[in-house]
Amino acid sequence: WVRIDPGQLEQAVTNLVVNAGEALPDGGRITVEVRAGMESGSVRGGQVTLRVTDTGPGVPPEVRSKIFDPFFTTKGSGTGLGLSTVMGVMEGAGGKVTLEDGPGPGAGFVLSFPEAPSPPSVEDRKPEAAAPVGRSDSTPWAPSILLVEDERPVREVMVKLLERAGHRVWAAADGEEALAVMERVGSEVDLLITDVVMPGIPGPELVDRVRVERPSLPFLFTSGYAPGELQERFSGFQDTEHLQKPFTPKDLREAVARAVQASIP
Description:
Elements: H1 6-22, E1 30-37, E2 47-54, H2 82-92, E3 96-99, E4 108-114, H3 122-125, E5 145-148, H4 152-164, E6 169-172, H5 175-185, E7 191-195, H6 203-213, E8 219-223, H7 227-233, E9 242-244, H8 249-262
Parallel strand pairs: 5-6, 5-7, 7-8, 8-9
Antiparallel strand pairs: 1-2, 2-4, 3-4
Helix pairs in contact: 1-2, 5-6
């Protein structure tokens, strides 16, 4: 037995199998195996491991240290979020994911879970109440954030990264949804993070509309476009700091801190 949300486990295994399949354009074998019990280096109490291996060309040495980074990809297309999502799922379950070193070609990813002593009870399955974020005397303050991002995989990873950093996050897929969120909880939002180029209401227009009611609300733009392209499309953008995609978790944390700090008189 292990303790993990079944939907998240399915998502993690699916991501690994899809990656393995893409490494086998001419065919091959993908193996998924589960083992339980103590293994070398395991945590006290035993662990359960789930391995996904393939017979493809393997992972080149020069990319092994980067494969779990958000937005890192060796493909011509794709978000580069598959393996970082797997890592987030495993960390949330108290486990880990590692790239397996093994003889011969192919790649192997190992999901390691602490072994649970028994099946979860009904009480265990109830969702935990959300802990208060940041507004106590003993906890550093973390601003509450409205995140607006039209690409779902990018949005989901950013939410995870921000929540891990202690922020309360509302997520919106476009400008209209963001305005609806502001109508409901606008007074609780401390920072607006929005993509620049989106269907419908673009980021700069969204900021202008939100600031009619919240003129001092700090904001942070994100974009995969080069600064020069954005300056051509949006007047005045050259005076606005933004977070360039792809970015690392550290880049995101630092950009949030700068945006909030810049709003303090």
